Amino acid sequence: MSNQTDQSRAVSVVILKGGVGKSTISMNLARQLTKRGRVLFADLDPNGHATNGLGYEKAYRGDTHLGNVLLDQGDATVGDIIRETPFEFDLLPSSNVLEDVEKELAGALQGSARVKTKIVDPLLGDHYDYIVFDCPAYPGMLNNNALVATGNVIIPLEPGTSSIGGYKRTMDRLIKPALEYIDIEVLALVPNKLRERIDHRTEDRELLENLNTAETTREKVPNFARITDEEFEAIDCGELRPPKPGIRYSAALSKSLKEHQPLLDYDPENTQLENFEELAAIVENGGVDR
Fold this sequence. Notes:
Blueprint: E1 9-13, H1 22-33, E2 39-43, H2 49-53, H3 57-60, H4 66-70, H5 78-81, E3 83-84, E4 89-92, H6 98-105, H7 114-123, E5 130-134, H8 141-150, E6 152-157, H9 161-179, E7 185-194, H10 203-213, H11 229-236, E8 247-248, H12 251-258, H13 263-266, H14 273-285
Parallel strand pairs: 1-5, 1-6, 2-4, 2-5, 6-7, 7-8
Antiparallel strand pairs: 3-4
Helix pairs in contact: 1-14, 7-8
């Protein structure tokens, strides 16, 4: 495990499915954590959605990149790659050659531990209180590296059977195999992109009911998405006005990326920020606090 302390923590935001909002959640989580300490936001996703979304296209296509450090190519250090941002966190940008880097990691000595030894161990605690990794949407060496380096994961989920399938794939193909070798803590399961009523049999209702009623998942649901059995019954009986749980589908979240900003900087009064604040507290505390 890395040199994490009660005051510092690294976390991977991961699910083996694209389009769930993983980059948006990880970026806004990193931004919210800046209220709690020094933060590095690390983009391990080769598509560079977060890196480019924040306006660092030049870094994404730069000659000096993360692969130089992970594969000991040349004399580049991790400090040469990290960029300061206007958002109070530093950025370790993705690169357009990360897919090639991933292939080379497969043949490298201790290839699954390079992110831990080259990034997290030297930086966490001494330089940063929190490191947030945005991970690829497929299994492979970069995801393996993130798990070994952090030992903590946040899994975003959107309504629909494909997202539930993505969650099951993530557990079966990524988390469970890794648990044979390292300790991994699922800090939170985050319902994202919700927009439908939950007093009807919608996909939103199905996702929330599945997560909140299953013994293996309900304690991992943040308070902003927690609905008890009794509350579901009261909603169905018309005794409780249906709440709007989870991170809601929001035009502001999409527009903020087009403006190359996290939500806090684009729309500081947005009500969704309360949810990202709770996610930051979950990372700080090492789990959901009821």
